[in-house]
Structures are given as C-alpha cells and as structure tokens.
Amino acid sequence: MPSDVRRSFPLSIRSRVRALAQIPALGLYLLGIQSLGAQTPTAKDAPHFARTADGKPDLNGIWQALNSANWNIEGHAAHAGPILELGAIGATPAGVGVVEGGKIPYLPEAAAQRTKNFADRLKLDPEVKCYLPGVPRATYMPYPFQIVQSQNRILISYEYAGAARLINMGKPTKAPDNFWMGWSNGRWEGDTLVVDVTNQNDQTWFDRAGNFHSDALHVVERYTPISPDALLYEATMEDPKTFSQPWKISMPLYRHLEKNAQLLEFKCVEFVEELMYGHLRKKTGP
Amino acid sequence: MKRENAMRVTARCLSSAASFVILVLPNVVLPAMGQTSAQAPSNAKAASKPVAKNWVAPRTADGHPDLEGTWSNATNKPIDRPKELGSKEFYTEQEFAEVSKTWYLGERNAKPEAHYDFAQFGMDGMQANFASNLRTSIVTGPEGRIPPFTAEGQKRNSERAAKAKGHEFDGAQNRGLMERCLVYGQLEGPPMLPPMYNNNMEIVQAPGWVAILNEMYHDTRLIPVDRSASPRPHIDAGIRQWRGDSRGRWEGDTLVVETTNFTDKTPFFGSSQNLRVTERFTRTGPQTIVYQFTVEDPATWTKPWSGELVMGPAQGDIYEFACHEGNYGLANNLSGARAVEKEAAEGKAEQGSKR
C-alpha cells in the first residue's frame, strides 16, 4: 500500500482510488463493503476509511508524518548539524523534499533572509526556544498529534509544546488578533477536511532550515483519507510579502497503531530555561 | 461579552501578563479571591439549582451524555470555607444573593502607587458570567477545608519551603510554575480549579476519548474513555507527567476520570507525586456540568478530601494563551534581582572605600 500511495500523489484521489480498484482482490473487497449498503455516495473515494455517525470521514486518531520535512521541507542531502558535540545525533537526515516543484518561490530579498536564517538557526529557529510551531510545521514535526473529531467540533492536539488548535466547523469566523497557531476555519469538501488558516504571526518557521514567512501567510490545509490508516496532507501557502506565487507541500500522515498509543507531555519550556535565562542566573563564587 | 473577549485577547497578547500577575499575587489566588469577589453573577440564581427536573442530557452519537461545549469554571467560592461559617455547608438563596453583593475584587486591590485593578485588567474572574451552587466553599463536607498535613506531608513541604527560601530569584527554576509558563500553578490540575482569569475549557468528545482543552496554558487533556472489558492501564509508573495520566469511564451518566502518575514537581496544595485524583463530570442541565473531585494522597493529608464546582457556558471562544513565547516577566524578574545585587555590592564597596 505505501508504494501505491506514493506513486499516486500527483493523481487526484478519485483517479488513484480507481487505479487501486483495478487490483482484483481489492476490487472484490470494495464490492463486499458496498453490498453492506452502509456507505454514503462518496464512499468510493476512500472505501476503507471509517466514517462518523453522520457520514463524514472519521479522522479521529493519533497521527504522525514520517519524513525529514521538519529539518528542511525542500529536498536536501544529509549534513552535519550545528553542534559539534552532538555528532551523528545532531546531524540532519536527508529528504527528497515535500515541496511541489522542489523549490519554494521566494522573492529575492526573502531568499537572502532564508540563507541568513539557516546560518544563524541555533539562535533564530523558534523550535530551539520551544515556541509554538505554527501551521503547517506542527503537522510534520517529529512528534505525534491527535485529532479529536465530533459531530460539531474538531480539535487538533500536538504533543510538541502542548500546541492545540480548535477548528471552527461552523460559519467562518474572523480572527480578533494574530496567534502563533493562527485562526482555523474548517469545512468538508467531499471527503476532504479543508482548513483555512489565517492570522499567524511572523515568528514561526516552516522547518529547521530557516524557511520562513511573514504575518501575511495564508495556509489552506487539506486532510484526505487515503487508507484506513493514512491521510494525505496538503498545504498551500500564500504570502505575497515573502513568495512570488503560492506553493504547496504534500505528504502522507500515518496512524499510530500501537494499542496503547497516547500523546505524552512534551512540555519543553522546562528544557530551554537555562538556554534562555541562564545568563541571568545568580553567580555563585567569585 | 465583547468586553470580556477583548480583555482575554489582550491578556493573551501581552504575553507577559501572566508573569506580571504572579508578581502581584501571592500563590494563594483562590482563598484570596473567595473572600473578595465581584458583582452578583447574572445566571447564578438560575444555576443554583443545578438539577433541572425532567431534563434529559443530550447524547453523543455513541449514546453517552454530551458534555461538549465551551465551559467556564469561574466561581465566587473560596476553596476553604471561611472559618466564621463553621459547619455551614450551604447558603440560603437569600444569603447567597447578599454575600454575592459584597464581593468585588476590583477596588480593593487598586492602589494608586501601583495601579493594578483586577476588574480593569480582566483578572477578576467574578466579572465573568458564572454558574454557581449555594455552597459556602469548593471543599465539600462538614469541615469544608483542606484537611491538615500528615507529619510526612508537613515535613516535605517545610523542607521544600526552607530550601527555596532566600533563593527565590537565583534562576528561572526558582520561580513559580505560573511565572515559568509551565502549568498554571496548583489550579490547572487535575483537579481543575478556576485560574484567576481565562477560566475556560473546551470539551470535545470522540468515540473512546474525551479531550479537555484548558485555555490556561493552552494545554489539552486527552482522556481515553474505556469502552471494553479490559480497561487501558495507566502508563508505566516510571513515567511522570505534570498533569498526570488520566483514564476515564462512564458510570451511568457521569464521566469518571482517574488520574495518577503526577510528578513530584506539581505540588497541588502540597501534594506528593502519589496524588490520585478522581473527577466526576455530570451534565445536569442545558447550562450546567456539576464537577466533583476527590484527592487522595496519604503521604500528604490525613484523609482524602473532595470538592465541587458548577461549570457553566463560557462567554465567547477559547483563545490561544501563548505564555512562554512572550515571557518577558521571568527575564525581567531575574535581571532585576541581578541589578539589585549589583547595586548592593557597589554600595558596600563604596562604604568600604569611605572608611
């Protein structure tokens, strides 16, 4: 299944599922499911995926990305990390990249800023300071997150820093201010949860490589079930202060299947206090 | 309502606000608030009889009572019953109305030389529309007070206090948990007691899970609710968490949540890491959840003790409370302490040179 998923990324969900349905065994399975008569008309889009009582895809679960996007969303070779003592532990794992077309379309000045950010990433990356990560970075950090979905509400809780988002599924509302995790209005488009994210501040990054945005960032996220245990995550970024045109990332998100899976605390504030405030510590001795 | 929202947003954006508050307030927010408080809550009367006759709780798709919504646990109760009330557990309706009139947190704390009016800055939880019962304190029972420490509990807490004394400003780790933006002191819980402001939580229910997002400090409790014959055991005893590890189950129409695995750094009114908290959430009316809790910790208290609050609908939405991200207060407190030390050292040196 994973290879099918990967191959089919450029295709639309519908056509990919059609391709899957041509596999005879799977086709029979689909027929079996359909004969139960419990499926909604759109069920063929994601035949195996669980549904809620009101027929929406059931996104409940603990999810995680399996890639190196948090190190660099663009394709990159492995390289040494910024802290000598960490050796291989602190090195950056390679990645083919999650940006459609390969490169982020930076405006010239912004491209120069990204280079500066990378050079000074130990000081500037908000993740180093345990700051809230913003969207879409929260999705592909190397920590799980949980979607809690009811008929009227969707809450996404991230293990990293206890970040949380309430997705408003009612009439779209306007943000009263800017927020680290932005302001999320959601809606269903067929079997896809579409979340419109506005009002993020200009403090968060996309990754540890210095890829950044301004407070004009507008993100549209799409969560589409592609198997019982995988979602396709897509996010389109628009920020005319930073990019010459909108651009997109996509990746699968995988369900944690461990029977005892649960988010644990990663309250990293405690881990960065000496880094952030150590210079203000009372000096003992001469 | 608009004003309340605006104030909450302001508090959040002035992200050092939380730290600021900690400077102003001692770590005994609740008892202090209980004796002051504010205007009579507009829906207190309606909510004072929480169990509505013939009212049936709405159900989720899987048939359990629907606790969902944006709730507030703001209250006008002190945690401990005022001593002069003795064993009086409940006010009459009339007494409650009278008592509520005298509660006001704003002016009492407004001093011209260090102007910090609780009402003006939205720190007065009593400004919120809040649900209530007729109880005279949060702690229930004839005594209505947190029981005394055991000898062990007394010793541990005295030692902790003695160790901290004189080092309050040494480094970040010496500051209070609220100021460090870790957990909202001993109020975030569980058991969840109202913080001074932003007393709000969002409850979302999915099959097998109940999530509670506390606005302070944007922290979500993800509670597995047992649906099978073999309940999910707690995480390994070696894994300790600030907010513990919660397991839920339905007892009739009441959600019961047991929490263990606390750290020894989360002192809930002096508790140890062996604290065990049982919470009971019962939806008793369209606008009320009765929230009851029992805490057990033989290493700390001479007996278990229980409390009760009424949760009502919050005004407006839950907003992001990004505390750590703008925690100028902590840095300023430490640098202020260093500046004072430097001044003192220079003063001494000057005095020395004059001799």
The figure for the number of domains of chain A is 2
| CA-atom Rg of chain B in angstroms | 22 Å
Q: Note the overall shape of chain A.
A: globular
Strand order of the largest sheet of chain B: 4-3-2-1-9-8-7-6-5
> What share of the residues of chain A lie within helices?
10-25%
Rounded average pLDDT of chain B: 81
* Total beta strands of chain A: 9
Structural class of chain B: alpha+beta
Helix content of chain B: 10-25%
Supply the number of helical segments of chain B: 8
Order of helices and strands of chain B: HHHHEHHHEEEEEEEEH
Report the uncertain regions of chain A: 1-44
Radius of gyration of chain A: 21 Å
Q: How many runs of DSSP E, i.e. beta strands of chain B?
A: 9
Describe the protein in words.
- The complex is a heterodimer of chains A (286) and B (355).
- Chain A is an alpha+beta fold and 286 residues long.
- Chain A contains 7 helices and 9 strands; from the N terminus they run H-H-H-E-H-H-H-E-E-E-E-E-E-E-E-H.
- Chain A folds into 2 domains: 2-45, no CATH class; 61-270, no CATH class.
- Chain A has a 9-stranded antiparallel beta sheet.
- The N and C termini of chain A lie far apart (65 Å).
- In chain A, 36% of the residues are buried.
- Chain B has a 9-stranded antiparallel beta sheet, with no helix packed on it.
- Chain B has 355 residues and is an alpha+beta fold.
- Chain B contains 8 helices and 9 strands.
